[in-house]
Amino acid sequence: MFTTITTILLALAPISFLIITQGSRKKSKYSETTTIISNLTGTITKNKRIIQSMVFDKFEINIDDDNQLIEIENKETKELKSISKETLLHKPAILIINTITHLCHYDYAKEIEEDILNFFGPFEDKKHFRLIQEIPTSYEKKISTIVVKKTGEIFAYSKGNPYKLIQKCSRILINNKKIELNHSEKRKLLNKIKKMNKQGQKIIAYAYKGLPIKQLDNYSESFTENDLIFVGMIGLADPIDSSIQKSINGLNALGIKTYIVTPERERKALAAGRELGLINTHYFESLSSEDLKDIDEQKLSKLLLNREKDYLFYETKPEDRERITKVLQKIGEKTAIVENTETFNQILNNITKIRKQKNNYSKIAYHSLNSKIAQSILLLTALILKISLPLTILSIVIIELINTSLEYSILKTDQHPQSPKKILPLTLINGSITAFIITGIFLWNALRFGWFPGAHSLATDAMILKSNIMILYLLVLIQIILALSISRFHKKIAMEGVGAMALIYTLDYFQVFGNATLSNLEWSIIAFSALIFLLIEESRKLIFHKWKSQNKTT
Questions:
Q1: Sign of torsion, CA 196 197 201 205?
Q2: What confidence tens digit (pLDDT) does each residue in 198-215 have?
Q3: Which of these, 283, 276, 271, lies nearest to 235 by C-alpha position?
Q4: Cβ contact 269:314 at 8 Å
Q5: Which residues share a beta bridge with 234?
Q6: What's the CA gap between 150 and 130, in Å, rounded?
Q7: pTM of the full predicted structure?
Q8: Strand 153-160 vs strand 143-150: parallel, antiparallel, or unpaired?
Q9: Which of 443, 446, 426, 455 lies closest to 540 in space, CA to CA?
């Protein structure tokens, strides 16, 4: 009685499915992420500022990350070509910008100055200049000016905020000639500044003018910073790490929401967010640390619940990021904090892997339950007919071990699952077909060994032994065919199937299941039954694909 109950319980329990799903549900880091909080510098952008563009004379240039490949466009002819850095540095306007960069310093943009100086390199001509006077500057003024003398000539060199400096200029250097900075030229410059700002660039503008040869005792701000000649401007930015673009696209496709929470200014963060597709410019809102002070937790929760809208948090403090994280977690989000560019790739890889595995659970269930349904119907038939059970505990354990191995391979090798909604009825149909085949073999064996309907005597040991071995071979063979069908006849599954059949044959050879040798007729019945199942399975797939194609066309 105990053996009978144990056999039935083993036949009913989807052991292989439980082993696979529980074993693969180990939560790897980031695997359940639904939202990401990312800083800007060092995660989205590289932690190094470079000169990204220059505007001077009639040219606009874009500089590659390595500062070697330089694209230069003639604004008049629209001609675009590549030049070397050495060629660029010898252009007249750039020579003036280089001189101003090395001689005139602006303490409020010291780090930016250093990046520009690194680009230009050593200034060999510095020894020919003598500093006469520095004009007082301030953060509000945003312009730095010096007066220098070179071989009898005196110049005022200025640099600073482009909007402020343009107001001081009346001429512009074009083709090495000083022409009037008319309304049209000024409008073009202002539009270019707006465009560079939108790209997140920090801009430094340059201007100069010649002063009377006779040196004065004192140079006033109104005298030196007036009627200047605009030379050009340089735009600097932290380049976006292009290696994360593919990961960002993948995360967006998976519905993972990314919030930029950064201490940087809005303009810089907004430009990066737009370029990477993290911010929809038609439906977004920027919030600073000061804005967050006026937003309580309830309102912030309501804002973040709207996943259709993008939010940029700029000029933030560490406590702001902590608060945003807690609110996201409170509304049910699984939030990952990105500290470096590699994290984006890790999150994408882990989420993709776990989601693919979860999607394949339906296939594993299909494979596992096919065997369970067949075994259950077989044993139920034996109980109703009052015949000894045709499967032993050992046989069921071997079937489950083989199923586990096949299903683990399905989980790893196949990434195109069918919809679970379609698999449930399909499982019932296939399981019933398998049950019909193996139950038929069982009854055939019973009848040929003397059992007849209505008999209350137990079947002979020889009948049970034959049935056990034949059903074991056939059920494993059917499960192999099903695994190959699910995995689109993957080579690894086929090799495992051969190994499984070899294992059963070896156990049978050493009489582990009992002393019973199968005849040619019995082998033929096993092969014919497996072929019938294969034909049914392939016919089902063909009909399904035709139906699917017709639905697509209609």
A1: positive
A2: 888 999 999 999 999 999
A3: 271
A4: yes
A5: 54, 204
A6: 7
A7: 0.65
A8: antiparallel
A9: 426
